[in-house]
Amino acid sequence: MGRVVSALRVAAAAGLAAIAVVSALLAADVRSWPVALAKGDAVYAVAPGDAAWTPPTTLDGLARSLLGTTGDVDQRHALQQYELAASVPTRLDTAVELQTQRAQAGTALAAAAASADPARASQARTLLGILAFDQSAEGAGSNEADTAISDFSNAVRADPANVAAKFDLELMLRLTAAHGSRPGVGTAHSFGRGGSRGAGGGVPGSGY
């Protein structure tokens, strides 16, 4: 009987030690996330393409779940992809690169637009609208202009406080009316690149 009790005590002690180790590792992972987000935001402010927001962790999945950082990182990644697409010059020799970057940005922004956070969803919709507008201004056709109007409208619905989306929607409607079907080349810089680094595209705070 004494041996059984001793064995149980040893097992219990080992279990407690394991729990203590996991708790320490998890605490370290949790502390690393706010630091990584802050550092990534600082890099994004000066060099968007170089920014990264995920820290090296041991129990990454558990720490992500506790802090709810998946949405924060996805949103930042979407904005980063938009910045990379916006930085590609519109020339014949960059056509393939531009198309690729826009497709990647569109995919990332579409995921961010599904966020349950109204401000995040609205921001992503605004930038999707700008991408669509850029393509319509380059002669992609009236469908892209319609897509831009739809995206800006959805951005305003998601967050009525999104001033950039309201401005872009009004401008898009005026341009479409003035040109009959779609805006012409040369008006892209009127758009919310108010989207790029201002209210439409700035990285939101993590809140931690």
Structure description:
The chain is an all-alpha fold and 208 residues long. The protein has two domains: 1-68, no CATH class; 69-202, no CATH class. The protein has seven helices and no strands. It has helices at residues 2-46, 60-67, 70-86, 95-113, 118-137, 142-158, 163-179. It is elongated and about 90 Å long. The termini are far apart. The relative contact order is 0.10. The model is unreliable at 182-200 and 204-208 (pLDDT under 50).
Mean pLDDT across residues: 80
Distance between the termini: 52 Å
How much β-strand is present in the residues?
Answer: under 5%
Helix content: 55-70%
User: Which runs of at least 5 residues are low in confidence (pLDDT < 50)?
Assistant: 182-200, 204-208
* Tally of individual helices: 7
Computed structural class: mainly alpha
Provide the number of structural domains: 2
Report the principal-axis shape. elongated
Q: Give the topology string: H per helix, E per strand.
A: HHHHHHH
Q: What kind of sheet is the major sheet?
A: none
Query: Total number of β-strand segments?
Result: 0
Rg over alpha carbons: 23 Å
Using brief descriptors, characterize the structure shown:
mainly alpha; elongated; 208 residues; 0% strand; disordered C terminus
